[in-house]
Amino acid sequence: MRKLFALFMLAGILFVPAFANAQEEEAAEADTTAMEEAAAPVEEPVQSPTIVDDEIVAEEQSFHQVVKEKFIEGDPVYMTPVLICLILGLAVALERIITLNLSTTNTKKLLLKVEDALASGGVEAAKDVTKGTKGPVASIFTQGLMRYSEGIEMVEKSIIAYGSVEMGRLEKGLVWISLFISLAPMLGFMGTVIGMIGAFDSIEAAGDISPSLVAGGIKIALLTTVAGLIVAIILQLFYNYCVAKIDSLVNDMEDASISLVDILVKHKLTGK
């Protein structure tokens, strides 16, 4: 029994180191495999070629460049008259706007000054006040005061007559703006008709309908039409502003004239 137990002990002593060595070798092989896998180069994913859109890369054109390009494409022969209408129309419109704004007068303040002058210095003092004030309202007051010695009726007639003169001065130049508003689309339509005629001439010469043959003529036709309409729209806005400003000035003149007559009647009744 002791011999059998001794044999088992001897076998255990012999096999335990061998088993341990085997485990160590397996662990070493596992570590080596892991190190090799870690050291292996990582394959990067293949990137698909980037497609760059020419329209995105291209720089955006400025508004001035776009207008210049369209002007050339529309044929300067037909676009130049439309441009001249725009320049002349804007020049007249700006001159009228500046003149009308300078003609605006604070009628309430002027009436108070005239009334105070009449009370303190009489008609001559009131004339000095109106002559020193700019604007159509002051000019009408001056004309009315100059007829004060002839009676209130003459004052009223003088105010009405000179009011018509001042209204004509305010409306001066509007007829030219109206002319350019009508002329610009007509010139654009003329370019349209001429462009279409050129397109049909190209079709007749080629004997075939091809988009490339008629594209040029139709493009000129459309660009000239658009240019004429844009010019007319711009000038129409300025024209309407001038008309509204003139109506406001005329209303002020009428109200102020009635108030002036009332002040003169009151001054005459009081005898001051």
UniProtKB/TrEMBL annotation:
Pfam families: MotA_ExbB. Keywords: Cell membrane, Membrane, Protein transport, Signal, Transmembrane, Transmembrane helix, Transport. It is a multi-pass membrane protein. Its main location: membrane. The chain crosses the membrane at residues 78-98, 174-200, 220-239. It is found in: Cell membrane; Membrane. It comes from the Bacteria. The keyword Mitochondrion does not apply. Residues 136-254 form the MotA/TolQ/ExbB proton channel domain. The keyword Protease does not apply. Residues 1-22 form the signal peptide. Belongs to the exbB/tolQ family. This is MotA/TolQ/ExbB proton channel family protein. It comes from Algoriphagus sediminis.
